[in-house]
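Dear H.,

Thanks for agreeing to be a second pair of eyes. The structure we're designing against is below in token form, covering all 232 positions.
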């Protein structure tokens, strides 16, 4: 996906792409390649593939939710900053929190934030379940891109959400049926599932929109050892 193709496809999502945003993405791509030689951030470093599989893919979340109307968003297991950083570039209104368990990735993201002059971004070095214990019901939206199994993701994310907030799970294949028991336990429900293909290379993607219906029991999230032993 070259720059013109990226612009065209993103505009089909209802987003007008500016030169400033393209400049930020190109710098982001440069930093990704540079830092990927030092730490393992991604297996995808070719510019056209980065624009398709990281940048465009991150923006597909707008198929599910209007981010112009969102205040606080937390990206769990953000890794190299997807989708969080890309969303922030196009939706500067977001108060963004990025959570990752690896400090090397947090150091990379700090460089990206400074280089791209992004404001109102908070970096958290912590495991998702530990962060959820002490930051309950803080966010309007939780995002996570291919993080863990769907039931485990629900246990990580739902406690962080305000009541009536949304968890948008960005998956490969549709595994929403795996979370039936977790949804019931965490007083939440799926309100939309969207399956589609990325343009050009046609790989499968699924967006799952989960709404939180009531306050989460203090039992959740459990300790990592308990979650790993038996998911909800």
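And this is the sequence the design step returned. I haven't edited it by hand at all.
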């Amino acid at each position: 996906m070259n720059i013109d193709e990226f612009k065209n496809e993103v505009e089909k999502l209802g987003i007008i792409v500016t030169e400033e945003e393209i400049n930020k993405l190109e710098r982001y791509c440069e930093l990704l390649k540079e830092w990927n030689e030092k730490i393992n951030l991604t297996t995808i470093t070719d510019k056209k593939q980065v624009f398709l599989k990281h940048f465009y893919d991150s923006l597909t979340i707008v198929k599910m939710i209007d981010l112009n109307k969102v205040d606080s968003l937390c990206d769990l297991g953000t890794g190299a900053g997807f989708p969080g950083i890309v969303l922030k570039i196009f939706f500067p209104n977001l108060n963004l929190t990025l959570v990752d368990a690896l400090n090397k990735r947090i150091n990379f993201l700090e460089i990206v934030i400074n280089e791209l002059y992004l404001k109102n971004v908070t970096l958290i070095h912590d495991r998702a379940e530990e962060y959820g214990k002490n930051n309950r019901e803080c966010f309007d939206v939780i995002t996570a891109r291919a993080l863990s199994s769907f039931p485990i993701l629900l246990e990580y994310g739902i406690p962080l959400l305000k009541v009536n907030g949304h968890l948008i799970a960005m998956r490969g294949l549709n595994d929403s049926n795996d979370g039936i028991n977790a949804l019931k336990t965490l007083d939440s429900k799926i309100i939309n599932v969207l399956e589609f293909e990325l343009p050009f290379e046609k790989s499968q993607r699924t967006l799952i929109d989960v709404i939180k219906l009531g306050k989460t029991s203090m039992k959740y999230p459990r300790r990592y050892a308990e979650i790993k032993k038996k998911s909800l």
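Two observations from my side: The chain has one domain: 65-229. The chain has a mean pLDDT of 96.

Warmly,
E.
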